[in-house]
TrEMBL record:
Signal peptide: none annotated. One of its GO terms (molecular function) is transferase activity, transferring phosphorus-containing groups. It comes from the Bacteria. This is Phosphoenolpyruvate-utilizing N-terminal domain-containing protein. InterPro entries: PEP-util_enz_mobile_dom, PEP-utilizing_PTS_enzyme, Phosphohistidine_dom_sf, PTS_EIN, PtsI_HPr-bd_sf. One of its GO terms (biological process) is phosphoenolpyruvate-dependent sugar phosphotransferase system. Residues 157-229 form the PEP-utilising enzyme mobile domain. Keywords: Transferase. Belongs to the PEP-utilizing enzyme family.
Amino acid sequence: MRILQGTPASGGVAAGTACILPVRKKPAMQKQYAADPAQELVRLQKARACAKQEIEEIYRSACRRIGSRDSLIFQIHIIMLEDEGFQQAILDSIMQNRWTAEYAVWYNGNKLYRTFAEMEDEYMRARSEDMLDICHRLLKCLNRGCCMIPAVEDYLTEPAVLCLAHALPSEVVQSNQGRILGLVEQYGSSTSHSTLLARSMGLPAVTALGAAFRELQPGGELLVDGDEGRVYVNPSPEVRALFQKRIGGKTEP
């Protein structure tokens, strides 16, 4: 048995096998030039409308699921999507640099991602996940074949503890809740919107495992203690017994 210490993010305990998503890097692409910048602007406008519509649908679904207060996260996503500075930077990249809409979105989205990720304030650093979420959605709306971040549902085919480097807010709230028993992140923080949603959904969560995250193995048995920020890997019978009452007398994954 191994005990991994992270940061408590959402209270409660969960038991299950580990579903580990591959490391998902920020969307990356080669510089691309457009033959007709005016056409790229049209594509961008349509993609922005598509992304806004999808976020609004997520917001309405989240309201039904967790209530309107915590669902406001997705109204913030719309504000970030429509931010004048962000949109102007993309437009300038298309018109002045003659970049494709995809590359302009990726470049400027990635620039803002790094800006947030490097901030000293923990709350503002956590907004980098929101920027990644928005950038990925815009890219998908520009090119429906452009899926640079694997979907959680592609891996979470049965109830398990979801283990990944970073969780995006939209994928947490859109995932089949019955399949996510708990959430374990290599990075992340207790102030991220992903963990706020986990709390609203009653999902035990531990973040910031750091290098210890690499000790997790697909299909391995885990106990997640969201109150203490601990993850028990292949727990002993004694530890399983201690957790039994806390998880409703059912410790088998």
